[in-house]
Amino acid sequence: MQDKKPKNVFREGAISSDFIGNSIYKHQTKTSIGAHNIFLGQVRADEIDGKIVSAIEYTAYEDMANQKFHDIRESAFEKFELTCMHIYHSLGTVKAGEICLFVFVSSPRRKVVFEALEYIVEAIKAGVPVFGKEIFEDETHQWKVNS
Which pTM value belongs to this model? Predict the structure, then answer.
């Protein structure tokens, strides 16, 4: 693929079901696609030291993070036979139960979308400088550690 300028993948707040549904809907006209796969990262109401997480506040080094997302995207297109791919990540506060990460891949073949999606999500978790501050029900907070 040709070098492109990194796209801004960030959305303020939670990623809505309307946004996700509309993204899927837009692909119905692309008749070379035989399979889609979607990963939705959702904020969990974890219990940590007796306190419940009510939200996560996401921050990022946006330019660096967008470049990393771009690099992951380009790498996935080189590695897998993908028709298209979309990545969106929340910034700001996302409540427990809401969606904070939306990854959507499409390909002519189903096996490809499973392999590509796992590769992309693991690469995001391992290498993109996005940080989450867990906010507890009592309004205290701590930095999230990815698992």
Answer: 0.92
